[in-house]
Amino acid sequence: MKKGKKKLLSNLLIVMVFVLIPKYSYSIEYGKPLNSKDFDLKGPVVSAIIKDCQFKEEFGEIKKTGSSDTRVYFLSNGHIYKEIVSPTSYKKYEYDNHGYLLSEMVINIGKGKLYKINNESIYDDDTTRIKYNNVYTTDGRIAETKAFRLNNGSSEQIERVVYNYTPGGIKITVYDLYGVQKEITNNGSLRVQRTDTKAFYWEVLTDRLDNKGLIVRRNKTYELSGGKKRNVSNEIRDYDDHGNVIKQTIYLANDNKKPNDILTLKYTYDNFGNWKQKLLFRGNKLLSWEERNITYATDENDYDFFIQDNAKQEELRKKKIDQIKKTIEIEKEKEIAKGPIVSFPDEFACFPGDYPRSASSMGSFERLNAWINANKQESDYSGRVGIEFVVECDGSLSDVRINKSSGGSLDQEAIRLVNKMPKWNPAYKDGKVVRSKIGINIYL
Description:
With about 450 residues, the chain is of the alpha+beta class. The protein has helices spanning about 1-20, 300-340, 365-375, 410-420; strands at about 45-60, 60-75, 80-85, 90-95, 100-110, 115, 120-125, 125-135, 140-150, 155-165, 170-175, 180-185, 190-195, 200-210, 215-225, 230-240, 245-250, 260-270, 275-280, 285-295, 385-390, 395-405, 425-430, 430-435, 435-444.
C-alpha cells in the first residue's frame, strides 16, 4: 500500500513539474506578462512570434508537426501593445503615465452580433474590457489597483490589489469577491506566495532568490485547515549565463537525498542573447519544444510602423462594420416609410395570371410553376430550395432570402430566378394594397 501511495505522489508531481516551468516570467503586480522583460526578451524588440510546437517521433527522429502561435507587439518602452492569440482573437493594452496597466481589451473577431443587408453579412466583434483604477503614494509608487469589467455600460469590480511597502521589500495582497485570494511577500532574497486554491487549503511557494532575482530554490507546501502544513516538494534550479533555467531538480517532501525528477533545458540564442529555441527534456525524452521569431527595431520609426499598420487594419474592419450598420439603419427607415408588412392579408400576393390565396380559396400556382420551368437553367444537381421575399405595394420583389438551403449553386439559381421574375399582383387588406411576405419552394 505504501508503494502504491508513493507511486501516486510521484505521478502527481510529474504533472506539477510542467506547471513549475513557466514560458515567461510574470509581472508581480498583475500576475501576467506586460512587457518584453516578462517574456525574457532583451534589446529593442518590436514583435515576437511565440510558437508552442507539436512534434512526434518516427524511426528514431523527432519531427515538428505544427505549432500554436502567439504574436506579441511591443512599444518602444517595452510594454505590450497588442497580443494576437489566434486568427480571430487578440488583446490590446493601455497604460497610465506611471507605466501601469490602465485598460485591457479582449477582442474576438466576428463573434458578436450578426449584421446582414441584401447578400452581404458580417459579424460584429465581441469585446471585453477590463479597466484598472490605480492609486499612487506621494513618491509615485503604486498603492492600490482596482479592476473592473465593463460590459454594455455596466461596471463590475472583479479584483483589488493592495501594496504595502517595508524598508526591506513589499507585500502585495490580491482580493477577489470573497476575500484574500493571494499574498506575495518579497524582501529581495526571499519571496513567499500564498494562493487560495478554493479547495480547503492554501498553496505556499517559498522562493530563495540570488542577487539577480532568479529563483535558485523553491519549496512548495500546503496549508491545511486547522493550521496544519504539509511539505510537498523542494526544487533546485540551475541557470546558464543568459539567466535561463537549464536544470530543474525536484525532491519529494522532506527527501533531499534522491531526486524524484530531473528536467533539463537546451537553448539556441540569437545575437541579442534571446533564445530562439527552447527544448525541455526528461532524460533523453523530449517533453516540450518552443520557438520564437523575434523582430528588432533599427530606430523609433519601426515601432510606429507596426502600431500604425495594426491600427490601419482595425480601422478598415471597423469602417466596414459601421457602413453595414448605417446601411441597415437606412433600410429600416425605408421599411418604416413603406408601411408595415401584413402577415395575414385578405388576399395574398400572387404571380401574374394566377389566382390569389384567400380565406375562401387555396389559390393557384400554375403560371408561377410554368414560368420557373421555362426560365431555370439546366444543372447536374437537383433539389428543393425554400425561398422567401417581400411583395411591395407596386408588385416589385425585395428582401430575397433563402430559408431552406440545398447548396451553393442551387441556392444561387433560386435567387436568380426570383430576382428575374416580373412584378406580382400585390396583397390586399380591407380593400387596400399592402406589403406582404411570401415563401415558396422552387424545385430545380
